[in-house]
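Input structure tokens:
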């Protein structure tokens, strides 16, 4: 960590890392080529094997991670967005979509995924699963999900999106009413909730985590 702000494309981040800069370059090349998802899954699997390198690249987490987490955008253009995301424990973040393919790789902790489908009768929850340290999972263009971290540990993951995540029009769902509305960072922050027992039970009946 050099402490300087680096500029990747038109984004600025405090993460100064040769490792992650190289990963961004690989994602950019893969995103515009054939079999983009397959290639990004493969290079993300390679990246998160290097847990020590990622820990050094991203630095220590603060003790008080905000409920909505900490998002560091390493790069974004019309083809690909690369983010490092920290998710605090015991917070249920709100359901939302991306309108583009996403690939998630966890390098510390466990990221629990709740999935939903937007049925004619409203938003309906499906079976969820967890992404353990060292695992990669891809989400389809229409996926609606909500993430949380299994306490007491925060989760850290690299998220790659095949498009411009910050500028696309997408949706968020109110956590109590499940009513759909336009996505905004302000709504995402306001709609974080304590991870109650109902959510935890849904998240626990999942495939065994693979370390
Ligand atoms: Fe998401």
């Amino acid at each position: 960590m050099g402490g300087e702000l680096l500029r990747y494309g038109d984004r600025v981040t405090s993460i100064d890392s040769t490792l992650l800069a190289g990963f961004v370059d690989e994602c950019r090349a893969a995103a515009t080529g054939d079999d983009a998802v397959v290639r990004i899954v493969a290079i993300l699997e390679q990246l998160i094997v290097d847990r020590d390198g990622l820990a050094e690249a991203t630095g220590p987490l603060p003790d008080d991670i905000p409920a909505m987490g900490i998002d560091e955008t390493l790069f974004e253009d019309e083809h690909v967005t690369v983010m490092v995301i920290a998710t605090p424990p015991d917070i249920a973040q709100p359901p939302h979509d991306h309108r583009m393919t996403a690939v998630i790789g966890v390098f510390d902790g466990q990221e629990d995924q709740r999935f939903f489908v937007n049925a004619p009768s409203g938003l309906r929850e499906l079976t969820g699963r967890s992404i353990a340290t060292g695992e990669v999972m891809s989400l389809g263009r229409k996926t609606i999900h909500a993430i949380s971290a299994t306490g007491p540990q925060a989760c850290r993951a690299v998220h790659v999106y095949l498009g411009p995540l910050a500028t696309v029009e997408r949706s968020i769902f109110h956590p109590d009413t499940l009513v759909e509305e336009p996505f905004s960072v302000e709504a995402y922050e306001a709609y974080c909730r304590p991870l109650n027992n109902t959510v935890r039970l849904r998240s626990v009946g999942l495939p065994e985590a693979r370390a």
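Residues 11 and 139 are 24 Å apart (CA to CA). Residues 96, 98, 145 surround fe (ii) ion (CB under 6 Å).
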